[in-house]
Every structure is written in structure tokens, then in C-alpha cells.
């Protein structure tokens, strides 16, 4: 099941694959050459270089009006045009005259070639087995990715005794940073697991194995298919696909490894915006009930799994299908899934590949069954069943028959039959590609249709194969929990459970499927009075005994280990996560790339476990320490820097590395609320009944729903003060989590008597939020946002390090460089985070220093960051340059069609000598007086004072114009010395007619300009006599590099 989930997700995610399929940076790059980040060695960043291409004062990737100066690349998707391009019109006209399968085949092949694809080559299978190797095409590069030996750590990572820091290699750094921009997963695999491994098994053995795997698997014709009620809403499947429907699906798909045609999703998006041509092709497929032959081709890359690499079962196949067929399958799969839900064609206990959080809900039901049986002293028997190669062995005829009996329209069944008939796969081996191997059984791996087709097929087995009584959980009968092919059967007695096992095994055998006893397991216990006994008898699967786990053992079900008295220990998992964080931090990636890699690829592996498993705080203690130290190193912060900046999100100016101890509490609250608010009736009923049972044991009486809410709020008064002596449950953990989180954020559980549901009130400032069941998915995000606000409040309360955080966290543009390093040099990166926390090595800011605090340039009494950046007179010329850089960018952004602009001219007609920075006279006669100022970010009030000061200064000009009968306004553009953007500037830009598109880019450029000039001020101070040695590693941020 895990193998299929990973493979099936490949249709939506990017796999690490051979160079033959790897992304070309010219295709996937979303940055123009002039906006790319500077990539250079640590030593080189101390030298002066000409980086006009990345300089904020240099060329822009977008003109002032928002028009791109560069031709679009396939990786960049622009807005949907309100009209068809000539390319789309020509192809739409050509598709209209297609009237046969052969014409469709020819037209689609030409279309793929026209957007940059490869010609389809249908290779026949070699006739002479003895010469198969000579016919294979040699591989052009290395294979995909390596597996991991454990859930938390990489298999080929250095041992504990190996150093994590290697000699810096600028060539390797450049290569790895470019690879990361093109394919993040592949770059991470290179860092964590080293060079990829080839499958060294004999190519003949590999081909023979997959010939057997894909061979026809007949099912018994006596199989009795279910008969359903007549379906409704069949038009949802058969109607023509509108361009809007196809475009919505295509737009949501991210670039993944292309199939044999070499086409990415971005090729379709850039050449066919709005999906007008694609939808026309897809409708011809619906009309003709046939598909292009290229949709039937697949290339398979073998990915190693833990175990003996010479055992073919330890290599996971990953199919690469042609992209056009995957888009069509995505749309058709969504249609069939909606139709199946409307017609109740899937059982409620089948949660595989459906919209709800099936893994969490099934694990919860299982936990409640075990806990409820232990609390109430009930007998319980359960068996985990594993279908052998379930997805790869379902007979094609059985799939088509199941679809027909479910009521899927015959025309749709014909299209699916066409997709499966004649489908082939070529397997990559160490010697090249095998010949095309016919796929005569199983759903197609990597195809978006496979999930719903498998579920509808398996439904015939689940509905007919389970008849004996199940386990009664809080009055609800639970017989089976299914997540695709992962089955869990429950019964009140061993006899009932064995009856259901025998029944479902028999039905599965008739369908051509069989269970694998070696991967099945059971747990059965009963009570005699208060004494619990584990049954010794083994259950039989297809006549073979399966493992019966004992009191302390566990079985891994849907990613979580569960057992009767098993105490979860995730130390090893998080130790692996910690090690991978250190490996990424020690790699030659750019600092912003390191943060992205850690967040998106390393820590994301722990998210599922955090949401669905009971994790002890001690399990994540080392990880939290490592994240803090790593975050400070990447941000170039000293040890004394406050840790809250590490936990802030990138939009707020932080590293976005979570504090796992607090994150676990957030997930505990979120998980509890989602279960109580679940759309699945069984889950919500069991959740409420389980909560009532826990509260009942606490207060020794039947609780009201409001008392249940008080329990979850952590109330310790009255009846809630006593110890219950109960088992640890999800509800007790949610109660403890709320008690801990109340120290940082304010929220409360409530029960709505009128609607009969729980709500969660989050008292955010300034706008409180009430989360209702329909928005349960927002709980974790809202709590994390409120926790982030706590970090900002806590940091801003510091006298020395908290002056600027309230300001630079106001607008995302102030911190745009944290995401991808846009318009940012390494020296600027190393400077800005220290400067914002007040940790620069200036005479008056260095801790425990006996140095003279006077300014080294002007002799002012205290050399502080505000003084150096805004008040040190020897820098007056640099102030003007910094000011003019901002002013000139805004002036260039105003189109001549808006009006005329005058710069730095004395305003005539008034007694005072006032020279505003800019006066915009619109063609309508309206006049805008704009002045620019760079203020130090000393609390929020600093920007308001700076703006008001400019308005008051130039108000006489506006009053003079108004007396003349003109419409006049005065405003200011305020930017922080440390690159903070005042949100009030946006209104001024809109009044000046700056397009929203260019304003978004210009804000980033202005902030980067300001940071660059401010770093030069500090450099000029620190490079004077009596300063620290600029060659020292800690002083690398002081290198002189003039902008422009």
C-alpha cells in the first residue's frame, strides 16, 4: 500500500529521476536572468563583483507597466488571455475536422511536437530473447533517487563519526544551487543520500520479473457482482469537458517528471492558456471513445527500497506517463469520484484517496476501539490484512465489469478499456531500457484514474465478503476499516473474526486477488472479570497462520504503530530528522535554499506523525535545539540572538523553523476538533461518545456537552480537580495541550446547543475568530498564526533586540528575499538579520565590551545602528543616493499616460522655499505631491511620525493649489533603513497609477536597494581603523560592494 501511495502521488509531485527526464533549468525556472540570485563562493562574496543582472539598481525583469521584457519560458505561466491566440485558433480549427481514431492520433502527435515534445516511438518487443540486451537503449544519465533506510533518516548519510562540514568547493556549490532551483527533490536526495544507485540485477531477470507481474490474471466467471440502484447524474461523467474545467485542473498540477513525450504541465500552460486546445482534444476522445496511443506508453524507473539490492522485490517501480493523458485522467477521475459519492458507490469505511482525512480517522477509530475495550472490559479481535500486489494484479476484465455493474456509463467504460488495451511499460535497468512489456493486469501506476478505479473494483469484494458481526464501539458496529487495499477487520469474538477472514479471502480469490499471510497480523484479547487475557490461537488467512501480536508488540497501520499496551517511541525517527537537518545546513546550498529544503523536504516528513501519533515532548527536544542553532547559523545570527526570529514565518522576517514542542500542542487541539467536526457520521459519533466517556470518568457522572467543552479547556475547578486515573487518550492530551497553549494564546472550546456542535473561539487581535465544523481544517493554521503573533509580541518587548520586529513584520515585501533570495547577495543576507536584531558589532551595541562607545566616523557619543544609518553626517552623500534610488524607481514606474512628473523642483507661488521630491500632475488636472523618506524602524510609531512629518511639511503647497481651485493631495513614501516597507505606501502608489503587477516587483526592489545601501554604511564604519578584521569569518558581512 505504501509503495502505491508513493507511486500514485507521482502524477502530482516531482520525482527524482534520471537526467533523461530531469528538468531543464531553462524550462522550469520562474525567474528571468536579470532577477536571479547571485551564486558565488563564500570567499568570492568578500570581493567586488559586477552583478548588474541581480542588482536592484540594475535591470528589471519587468517593465514599469508590468510588461515582461523577456520572452516567456515554459516554466512561467501568465494570465489567461480573454481571446484565443493564433496558435490556439489554428489548432481548434484543425481538431474540429478530426473524425476518426487515426486522425486523432496524427493530430495529437503533431500537437505534442508543436509545443516541444518528443515524437512517439512505439517499439515492438524483441523477438529473439538471446539478443534482448543489444536492442536496449543505453541510459544517458544516472537514475532517480535513493530510498531511506528508516522513516526519519537517509540510508547513505555519513556515520556519526564523519564530519558534517566538508571543504568548500565553489564549483560544487554552483552545481548544487542550480540543481536545487531546477529540481529541489533531486538536489535534496544528492545531499542526504549521496550518488544514486543503479539496479545491478540482470536486465533479463528484471524484464522476466515484470513480464510475470504484468501478466494476465484471470478471475472466476462465477463471481457474483453487486447490483446497485439505477445511477443518477451520469451527465457529470459524459458531458463535454469545458476549457474552464480542464484549465482549473491543469492549473493546480505542478511540474512533475515527464513521460516519454518529454512534455511538462508548464508546456501546456504556456502554449495553451485556458486549455482551449486540450479541452478540444479531450472532447474528441469522449466522442470517439478512443485515446492516442502515446497515452498507453509508460517508462518505469526502479527506486531502491531497504533490503538486499539484488532482490528485485526491493526495487519500487515508478511509472512516468505522458502528461496529456494524465491531465485527461485527472479530469475524468474527479468526475467519476463526484458521481460515485452522489450515488453512494463507495462504502463509508473506505477512506482511500478520498477528500476526508482517512488515515487520521481510521487510526482514531482503531485507538478508540482498543481504549474502549480496555476501559469497559470488552472482548476484541482484529486482523490487519494485506493484499499481495493489489494494484498490480487486479484483472482488467474485473475492473471493467465492476465499473459496468456500478453503473458507470458504457461510453466511459469504453474509454477506460481503450486506455488499458495495448498499454505497455519499458523498464530502465543498468544496461538500458527493456522492450515494451504489455500490461495485462493491474491499474496503471502513476495514473490519476487508478485510485477511483481500484476503489470501485475493491468495493465488490468489501460489500460481499464481510457478513459476520463486527465490534460494537459506543453503540456503533464496526466491521471493517479500509484505506484502499489496507484492510482492518474487527469482531467481538475470534470466531466472528475468522468467519469474516474466510469470507473475504474466498471472495478475493474469485476476483483474482489473494492476501499475503506474511504481512498480515492479528490482535485478540478477552476479559474474565477484571483480568485481561491475550488469545493464543492464530488466525488463518487462506489456510496459513498469521502473526498474533502480544501485549507489548505493535503493528504499523497507515503510518502509525498501534498495539494493546505498546508505548510509542519516536526517538529514532526524530533523530533521523535531526541528522538530515544538520546535513542540509552543512551543504553548499544558498542560505535561503537551506531554509526551504529543511522546511519543505525534511521537516515535512514529520507532519503526518505529529498529527496522528502520540509524540512525547522528549522525542523532539534534540530536534528543537538543532533547529534553533541551525536557524541562527543560516541567518548569521550570534548565539545571544533571540530565538523567536527563527520561529517566525518567512513573510514576517523569520526562518520559519517551527518550535516542535508548541507545534505538537497545536496539532493535538486541531486533531481533536477535526474528529468532532468530521463529515463521517461514525467518526464524529465515536469521537463525541469517547469524549463523554473520558469526562464521565473525570467527574463521576454523565457530563453535559458544555462540561465536555470545559474539560477540553483545561478547567481544574470543582469536579474537574480530581484525578481520574484513566488511560491517556486523545482527549486528555488535547486538554493538557490547551493548558500549555493558554500561556501564549487565548482560545476556548464552546458547545453550540442550537446547532449541536462544538466551536473553537480564537481570541485573535484585533479580530476574534469562531471556528465552526465546516472550517475545521483552518484550526491548525489559525493557532499557528496566533502563536506567531505571540513570538512577535515577545520579541518586541526586548529593549535591545525588539525595536524593529513590529515594523519589518508588517508587509511581506520587507522579507521577500527569505523565500528565494531574489535581488539579494550573500553579504546583504549576512548583514540584514543581525542588523534587525541589533546584533551588529558597533561600539555602542557590543555586549560586555570596554570599547569607547563613540562613533568612529563623526565622534557622536554613541555609535548605534540608528545613528550610523540615519544620523552620521559623513554619510550624507550616501543618504542622498539611497533616497534617490527609491525616488527614481517610483518615477520610472509612472506611465506617461497617467500624467507628467517633475522631480526636485521648487514650487512657485508660495512664500516658503519648498522643494518636494516629486509632483505628479495627472491629465485630469489632479495634483499629487509626494516626498520620500528613509526612517529607522524604531517601533511602529516611527513610520507614522515620518509620514506625518512629510505631510505637514508640504501641506502649504496643497493648500495653495486648493485655493486655486485644483484637486491636490500630499503623501509620502516611507521605507525603513533596514528594508521595511510601510503598508501605507501602497495607497500612494495606487493613486500615482502604478500597476499592481509592477508595484509588487518594485516593492521588493526598493527594499533590496535600501538594505544594500545600509550595509555599505556599516561596512564603511567597520572597515575603518580599530575595526574588526574584515577577513574574519564572523565579519564576512562587511565586504564592500557598491550597488548599481
Write a concise synopsis of the structure shown:
Residues 52-73, 144-163 have a biased composition (Low complexity). This is Retrovirus-related Pol polyprotein from type-1 retrotransposable element R2. The protein is built from 37 helices and 24 strands.
Give a topology summary.
Layout: H1 2-8, H2 25-28, H3 86-96, H4 101-114, H5 132-135, H6 170-182, H7 184-193, H8 203-213, H9 235-238, H10 243-252, H11 265-271, H12 276-288, E1 297-304, E2 315-321, H13 323-342, H14 358-376, E3 380-386, H15 390-393, H16 396-406, H17 410-420, E4 424-429, E5 432-433, E6 437-438, H18 450-465, E7 471-473, E8 476-478, E9 480-483, E10 486-491, H19 494-510, E11 521-528, E12 531-534, E13 540-541, E14 544-545, E15 547-548, E16 555-557, E17 560-562, H20 571-585, H21 591-602, H22 607-612, H23 621-634, H24 644-647, H25 660-676, H26 681-699, H27 705-712, H28 730-741, E18 747-752, E19 757-762, E20 769-771, H29 779-796, H30 805-808, H31 817-820, H32 826-836, H33 865-871, H34 876-893, E21 899-903, E22 918-922, E23 927-935, H35 941-963, E24 968-976, H36 985-991, H37 996-1022
Parallel strand pairs: 1-4, 11-15, 23-24
Antiparallel strand pairs: 1-2, 3-10, 3-11, 4-5, 4-6, 7-8, 9-10, 11-12, 13-14, 16-17, 18-19, 19-20, 21-22, 22-23
Helix pairs in contact: 3-12, 6-7, 10-12, 10-13, 14-26, 16-17, 16-18, 18-19, 20-21, 20-23, 25-28, 25-29, 34-37
Biased composition (Low complexity): 52-73, 144-163
Biased composition (Basic residues): 119-138
Domain Reverse transcriptase: 284-562
Amino acid at each position: 500500500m505504501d509503495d502505491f501511495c508513493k507511486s500514485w502521488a507521482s502524477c502530482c509531485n516531482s520525482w527524482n529521476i534520471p537526467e533523461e527526464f530531469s528538468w531543464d533549468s531553462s524550462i522550469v525556472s520562474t525567474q528571468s536572468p536579470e532577477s536571479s540570485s547571485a551564486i558565488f563562493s563564500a570567499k568570492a562574496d568578500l570581493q567586488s563583483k559586477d552583478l548588474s543582472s541581480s542588482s536592484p539598481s540594475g535591470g528589471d525583469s519587468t517593465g514599469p507597466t508590468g510588461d515582461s521584457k523577456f520572452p516567456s519560458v515554459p516554466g512561467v505561466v501568465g494570465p489567461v488571455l480573454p481571446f484565443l491566440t493564433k496558435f490556439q485558433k489554428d489548432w481548434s480549427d484543425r481538431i474540429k475536422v478530426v473524425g476518426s481514431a487515426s486522425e486523432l492520433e496524427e493530430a495529437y502527435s503533431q500537437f505534442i511536437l508543436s509545443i516541444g515534445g518528443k515524437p512517439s516511438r512505439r517499439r515492438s518487443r524483441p523477438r529473439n530473447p538471446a539478443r534482448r540486451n543489444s536492442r536496449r537503449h543505453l541510459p544517458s544519465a544516472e537514475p532517480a533517487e535513493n530510498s531511506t533506510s528508516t522513516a526519519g533518516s537517509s540510508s547513505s548519510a555519513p556515520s556519526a563519526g564523519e564530519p558534517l562540514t566538508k571543504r568548500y568547493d565553489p564549483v560544487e556549490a554552483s552545481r548544487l544551487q542550480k540543481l536545487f532551483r531546477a529540481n529541489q527533490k533531486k538536489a535534496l536526495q544528492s545531499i542526504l543520500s549521496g550518488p544514486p544507485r543503479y539496479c545491478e540485477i540482470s536486465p533479463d531477470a528484471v524484464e522476466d520479473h515484470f513480464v510475470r507481474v504484468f501478466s494476465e490474471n484471470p478471475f472466476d466467471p462465477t463471481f457474483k457482482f453487486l447490483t446497485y440502484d439505477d445511477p443518477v447524474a451520469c451527465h457529470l461523467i459524459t458531458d463535454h469537458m469545458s476549457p474552464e474545467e480542464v484549465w482549473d485542473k491543469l492549473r493546480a498540477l505542478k511540474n512533475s517528471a515527464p513521460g516519454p513525450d518529454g512534455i511538462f504541465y508548464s508546456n501546456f500552460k504556456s502554449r495553451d492558456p485556458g486549455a482551449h486546445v486540450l479541452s478540444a482534444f479531450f472532447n474528441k476522445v469522449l466522442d470517439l471513445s478512443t485515446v492516442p496511443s502515446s497515452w498507453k506508453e509508460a517508462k518505469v524507473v526502479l527506486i531502491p527500497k531497504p533490503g538486499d539490492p539484488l532482490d528485485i522485490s526491493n526495487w519500487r517501480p515508478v511509472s512516468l506517463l505522458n502528461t496529456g493523458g494524465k491531465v485527461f485522467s485527472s479530469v475524468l477521475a474527479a468526475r467519476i469520484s463526484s458521481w460515485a459519492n452522489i450515488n453512494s458507490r463507495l462504502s463509508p469505511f473506505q477512506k482511500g484517496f478520498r477528500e476526508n482525512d482517512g488515515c487520521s480517522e481510521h487510526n482514531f477509530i482503531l485507538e478508540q476501539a482498543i481504549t474502549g475495550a480496555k476501559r469497559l472490559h470488552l472482548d476484541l479481535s482484529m486482523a490487519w490484512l494485506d493484499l499481495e500486489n493489489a494494484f498490480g494484479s487486479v484483472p482488467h476484465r474485473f475492473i471493467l465489469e465492476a465499473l459496468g455493474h456500478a453503473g458507470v456509463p458504457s461510453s466511459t467504460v469504453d474509454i477506460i478499456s481503450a486506455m488499458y488495451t495495448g498499454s505497455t511499460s519499458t523498464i530502465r535497468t543498468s544496461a538500458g531500457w527493456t522492450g515494451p512489456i504489455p500490461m495485462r493486469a493491474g491499474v496503471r501506476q502513476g495514473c490519476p484514474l487508478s485510485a477511483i478505479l481500484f476503489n470501485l473494483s475493491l468495493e465488490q469484494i468489501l460489500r460481499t465478503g464481510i457478513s459476520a458481526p463486527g465490534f460494537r464501539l459506543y453503540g456503533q458496529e464496526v466491521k471493517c476499516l479500509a484505506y484502499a487495499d489496507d484492510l482492518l477487520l474487527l469482531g467481538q469474538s475470534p470466531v466472528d473474526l475468522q468467519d469474516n477472514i474466510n469470507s473475504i479471502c474466498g471472495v478475493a480469490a474469485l476476483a483474482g486477488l489473494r492476501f499475503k499471510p506474511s504481512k498480515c497480523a492479528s490482535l485478540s484479547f478477552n476479559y474474565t472479570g477484571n483480568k485481561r487475557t491475550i488469545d493464543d490461537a492464530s488466525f488463518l488467512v487462506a489456510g496459513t497462520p498469521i502473526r498474533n501480536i502480544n501485549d507489548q508488540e505493535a503493528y504499523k497501520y497507515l503510518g502509525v504503530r498501534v498495539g494493546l499496551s505498546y508505548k510509542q517511541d519516536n526517538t529514532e525517527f526524530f533523530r533521523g530528522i535531526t541528522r538530515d537537518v544538520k546535513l542540509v545546513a552543512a551543504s553548499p546550498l544558498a542560505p535561503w535554499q537551506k531554509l526551504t529544503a529543511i522546511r519543505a523536504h525534511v521537516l515535512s516528513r514529520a507532519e503526518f506523525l505529529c498529527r496522528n501519533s502520540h509524540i512525547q515532548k522528549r522525542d523532539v527536544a534534540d530536534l528543537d535545539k538543532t533547529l534553533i542553532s541551525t536557524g541562527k547559523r543560516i541567518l548569521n545570527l550570534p548565539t545571544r540572538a533571540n530565538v523567536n526570529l527563527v520561529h517566525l514565518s518567512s513573510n514576517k522576517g523569520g526562518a520559519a523553523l517551527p518550535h516542535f514542542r508548541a507545534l505538537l500542542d497545536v496539532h493535538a487541539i486541531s486533531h481533536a476538533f477535526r474528529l468532532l467536526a468530521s463529515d463521517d457520521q461514525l467518526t464524529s459519533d465515536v469521537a463525541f461518545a469517547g469524549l463523554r466517556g473520558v469526562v464521565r470518568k473525570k467527574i463521576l457522572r454523565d457530563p453535559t456537552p458544555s462540561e465536555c467543552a470545559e474539560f477540553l479547556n483545561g478547567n481544574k475547578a470543582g469536579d474537574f480537580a480530581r484525578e481520574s486515573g484513566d488511560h491517556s487518550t486523545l482527549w486528555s492530551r488535547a486538554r493538557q495541550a490547551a493548558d500549555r497553549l493558554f500561556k501564549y494564546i487565548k482560545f476556548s472550546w464552546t458547545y453550540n446547543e442550537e446547532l449541536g456542535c462544538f466551536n473553537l473561539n480564537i481570541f485573535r487581535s484585533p479580530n476574534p475568530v469562531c471556528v465552526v465544523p465546516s472550517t475545521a481544517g483552518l484550526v491548525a493554521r489559525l493557532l499557528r498564526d496566533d502563536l506567531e503573533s505571540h513570538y512577535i509580541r515577545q520579541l518586541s518587548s526586548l529593549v535591545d533586540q525588539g525595536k524593529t520586529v513590529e515594523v519589518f513584520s508588517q508587509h511581506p515585501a520587507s522579507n521577500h528575499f527569505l523565500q528565494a533570495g531574489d535581488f539579494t547577495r550573500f553579504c546583504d543576507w549576512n548583514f540584514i538579520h543581525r542588523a534587525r536584531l541589533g546584533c551588529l558589532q558597533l561600539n555602542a551595541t557590543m555586549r560586555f565590551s570596554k570599547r569607547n562607545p563613540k562613533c568612529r566616523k563623526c565622534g557622536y557619543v554613541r555609535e548605534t545602528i540608528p545613528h550610523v544609518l540615519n544620523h552620521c553626517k559623513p554619510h550624507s552623500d550616501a543618504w542622498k543616493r539611497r533616497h534617490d534610488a527609491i525616488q527614481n524607481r517610483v518615477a520610472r514606474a509612472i506611465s506617461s499616460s497617467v500624467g507628467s512628473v517633475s522631480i526636485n523642483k521648487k514650487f512657485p507661488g508660495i512664500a516658503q522655499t519648498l522643494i518636494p521630491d516629486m509632483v505628479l500632475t495627472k491629465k485630469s488636472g489632479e495634483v499629487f505631491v509626494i516626498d520620500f523618506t528613509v526612517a529607522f524602524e524604531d517601533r511602529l510609531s516611527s513610520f507614522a511620525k515620518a509620514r506625518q512629518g512629510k505631510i505637514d511639511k508640504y501641506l502649504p503647497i496643497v493648500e495653495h493649489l486648493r485655493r486655486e481651485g485644483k484637486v491636490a493631495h500630499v503623501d509620502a513614501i516611507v521605507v525603513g533603513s533596514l528594508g521595511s516597507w510601510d503598508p501605507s505606501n501602497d495607497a500612494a502608489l495606487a493613486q500615482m497609477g502604478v500597476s499592481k503587477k509592477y508595484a509588487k516587483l518594485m516593492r521588493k526592489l526598493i527594499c533590496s536597494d535600501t538594505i544594500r545601501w545600509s550595509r555599505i554604511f556599516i561596512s564603511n564604519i567597520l572597515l575603518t581603523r580599530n575595526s574588526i578584521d574584515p577577513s574574519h569569518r564572523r565579519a564576512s558581512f562587511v565586504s564592500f560592494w557598491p550597488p548599481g
